[in-house]
Specification:
Blueprint lengths: L1 E5 L4 H12 L3 E6 L7 H8 L8 E5 L5 H11 L3 E4 L6 H6 L1 H19 L7 E7 L23 H20 L3 E6 L2 E2 L8 H11 L2 E5 L5 E2 L2 E2 H13 L4 E6 L5 E2 H12 L4 E5 L14 H7 L7 H14 L3
Parallel strand pairs: 1-2, 1-4, 2-3, 4-5, 5-6, 6-11, 7-10, 8-13
Antiparallel strand pairs: 9-12
Length: 317
């Protein structure tokens, strides 16, 4: 099975590439090495994968329509996993046009390319828990209304879901959207809370705690996320949406305490006001993914944090 993975040099993408290669699949990685964080980190993520003869890298912007079309026509993939995107709620508030361009137009380019070959490849794409907005009721179900995004990033991900549905309806393209809930683990993007807070704690610098520390996130270990992606690839036959989370939200204050314990340091906490675009909680109901994909997260938060810390220390950050 040949699979194209856009964003394959990133955090989740590189773990997925490793898993697909272990499973004996052929992988084409597409990444533009966006300077959102250092290129060297992404190159390190891919180093082992690119040693395999079943893996090759194509450096390309996902908005490149001609490039996407040429690659799909040549590679004739059985599946496309579209993970590439501008990430992050807060940066999207500063650059909404860019987020709409990369996330929505970039997704449409690959949907178009997928529809130009026969048989149609399976199209699995990354959505986000952010589409649920700032909800007081939980857990979040795929059947819940998602018509009130509170950031441009969230709105762009909802737009991608709508586009995928339209391409399925019009062209019969099998599409599966995966609403990821706060992934963490080795290779974590440096801007994400677990990674950025770890650096601050180790250096003895203040850790920002927005609000009273009671906001909750459904932290999901990256290998559990990847297992959900692989299961979705294998079962992508029509149009589907799935939550890929841990179904066990953790308060911000608890996350900081747990990370400090794993690092053997006492965090210095700096209280700050709540941030625009933030939500009170994310909490995945994974019953649909469990029932239809056999998805079942298995990594408790403390165990995942310990694995992250082992990687963090080995990387000498």
């Amino acid at each position: 099975m040949r699979i194209v993975v856009t964003g394959g040099a990133g955090f989740i993408g590189s773990h997925l590439v490793d898993r697909l290669l272990r499973d004996g699949r052929e992988v084409v990685v597409v990444d533009d090495f966006d300077p959102f964080y250092p290129r060297a980190m992404k190159e390190a993520n891919l180093a082992a994968a690119l040693a395999s003869p079943r893996c090759r890298l194509v450096e390309m912007d996902v908005r490149d329509a001609a490039g996407a079309d040429a690659l799909v026509q040549t590679a004739r993939p059985d599946a496309i996993v579209h993970l590439a995107a501008k990430a992050g709620v807060r940066p999207s508030i500063a650059e909404p046009s860019l987020y709409a361009d990369v996330n929505v137009i970039g997704t449409v380019r690959w949907l178009e390319a997928a529809c130009r070959i026969e048989p149609r490849p399976r199209f699995v794409y990354a959505s986000s828990s952010s589409v649920y907005g700032d909800r007081a009721t939980a857990p979040f179900k795929e059947s819940d209304p998602v018509d009130a995004p509170v950031s441009p990033y969230a709105a762009s991900k909802k737009a991608c879901e709508l586009m995928a549905h339209a391409f399925h309806h019009l062209h019969g393209l099998p599409t599966t959207g995966l609403r990821f809930f706060t992934a963490y683990g080795p290779r974590n993007r440096p801007d994400l809370a677990v990674a950025s807070f770890a650096g601050l704690i180790v250096r003895g610098e203040p850790v920002p705690m927005f609000g009273d520390g009671g906001t909750r996130r459904d932290y999901t270990y990256v290998e559990d996320v990847v297992d959900g992606v692989v299961r979705a690839i294998d079962r992508c036959t029509s149009h589907h949406l799935y939550n890929i989370g841990n179904a066990s939200p953790i308060e911000l204050r608890t996350m900081i305490e747990t990370l400090g314990e794993a690092l053997g340091k006492t965090p210095v906490v700096k209280r700050l006001p709540e941030q625009p675009g933030d939500v009170r909680q994310t909490f995945a109901d994974v019953s649909r993914a469990s029932r239809e994909l056999g998805y079942q997260p298995t990594t408790p938060f403390r165990e995942g944090v310990d694995r992250f810390v082992a990687w963090f220390r080995a990387a000498d950050r």
